[in-house]
Amino acid sequence: MNALATAQRRTGSIRRYQPGRAADGGDAGKLSSNEHPLGPSPAAMKAICASAPEVHRYVTSEELRGAIAEQEGLDPGRVVVTNGSDELCYLTAMLTTGPGSPVILSEPCYQIDELVTRLHEAEPRYVPLKDGGHDLDAMAEASQGATLCWLPTPHNPTGRAVTAQDLESFLDRVSDGCVVVLDEAYRSFAGSDFVADTRELLDRHPNLLIQRTLSKAHGLAGLRVGYGLGPAGLIGMIDAAKPPFNVNVVALNAALASLRDPAWAEYGIDLVRKERERFEDFLTDRGIRHWPSEANFVTLTVEDTDRLQAELARDGVAVRDGDDLGLPGYLRVSIGRPPEMAVVRGAIERFQEHDNGGASQ
Amino acid sequence: MKVEASLLGQDLEIEIGTRELDEPGPGEVLVRVEWAGICGSDLHVFRSGTWVEYWPATLGHEVAGVVEAVGSEVAFSPGERVVLDSRLPCLDCPECAIDPDRCSQITFLGESRPGGFAGYCVVPERSVHRVPDGLALEDAVLAEPLAVVLHALAGIDAAPDSALVIGHGPVGALVQIELRRRFEDLEVDVAEPAERRAQLARALGARTTDAAPEDRDYGLVVDAAGYEGSLKDAVAAARHGGTVLVLAIDGRPSGLSGREIVESEVTLRGSNAFVDELPRAIELLAAEAGRYRPLVTGAVSLPELPETIRGQLASPDEVKVLVRP
To answer: How far is A109 from chain B (nearest CA, A)?
Structure first.
């Protein structure tokens, strides 16, 4: 078999990732990619500017790795720094799956999880969501004989989260030979019931790999910084497999500055939670169905999503069409700054006033 | 024309209703309000009725919008995006004859004529400033309070050795942001008891305390709080020979003695509104809106305004709240 045929076989069944669209004019913005409403912290921006003279150097991620380990109360050998958490998805799939390996995914799933599963010719076992949340009983059952289980919580694209108690119970039931990737990209925005103690969880479950990112609460999406926490053995193998300088020096310095100045992240998280609560109350009052979200977005459904998108676009707001996310008939609205959310609420009011198409479902 | 507007009665009750707005006359501009900011002085008026010259009043002097129509002899055109100068000089006093920016009878939009907590407002052409392309109106609406802070900080060209801001409402927050923009390495402390406001101060790099420290440590102290005794606290926190900048409007006796000022040799300086800083404020926002955006902690529709005002009067935890008519 020639090389191109192999590449075609591996990529033939993947769905190309569709990035969120930017807003097109208007006064409000891009609410389609779950980005930070205010951007990076002043400290991170200062670090970014100060990094320019260093870019001729090859710089490792050891300092950031140490800072993360200290923050999490873990040995640095249980931390790996990656080029966004997506790189960790690629590395984990590369190391733990191969042609025909059974891999558990909720349906719909986070797109990258599915993409890397198919890229390695593994065999996806889809477990349909139950009311927007993971069906943990079915996933635990499906995990028997599987090599990998992707578990984003809060889940993207629905925003629903697994409670710490249910997570513990699930992990107890997952087959020992199956690595569970707990993707906590949106952990910071979740309520306390949905946040497990990281160290205890890792100590109890040697098949657990926790995936985090600085893209969301720290506003560094464009720099691509993520990390994994897990057992030293698995982390060591990921570390050995990853490119040696996988995160650039500007991103490393910004990440360090951001972690050392948590007040900015805390302020942004509170802002998002407040605006999310307000938006969910608004949707409930207007009779618009949505999943209760623990993330920095809310996913809602109306009868005519195209018309609502057009109404939002009139005010320069772009949201994510559920068709891109395996959720036809839904729209995922990232939580933006207060003025942006006021614009969104106004557009939804106009949408409902025009006719009752989305009012009561 | 009839427009939807917030109406403040003489009994200080707020409601949303309609008011008759005259068509723009010669030299006037009709502006469709896109965003209006709630200022601390608005809250003062909602609480006291001070300065209002007509009833029911439609307050709102921080306004960004779009020109809807113009009277004769006006250089603006419908569709232009604008922010408004809140000041309304009388154009009749001796000071105005020299420079309207120094008017001794000055009034403010909303207090002497209907302001921006409404779908539309009519203002003199001299109040209107164009918003450059690329600056969103939701950001441009911060130009007026930013101009107030630029005026207050005029003359502070060298970094003080240390700074304390008492009160982290919109003006205090803008003072912190401006000080950090000018003097990147200046450590700014903030005294603010309201948690959300204090949280913003920390996010922007300040150390915070609930109350003003009593140590005489600070080269610059800014009183942006205006609680009873805040001026005395500000002077007490200034180091010998330091500067105390008073931005808060508080009519109560401060309890400050001349001896405290003499012996500490502080420079006490007041600052009221602004003079010609609005264009510079627009420039700064156009260059770097993201620096100023964090202070916007809420945005509401016009029908939500009365409840929002009542909430803020009861518990001033928000920093800047915008209204979208």
So the answer is: 33
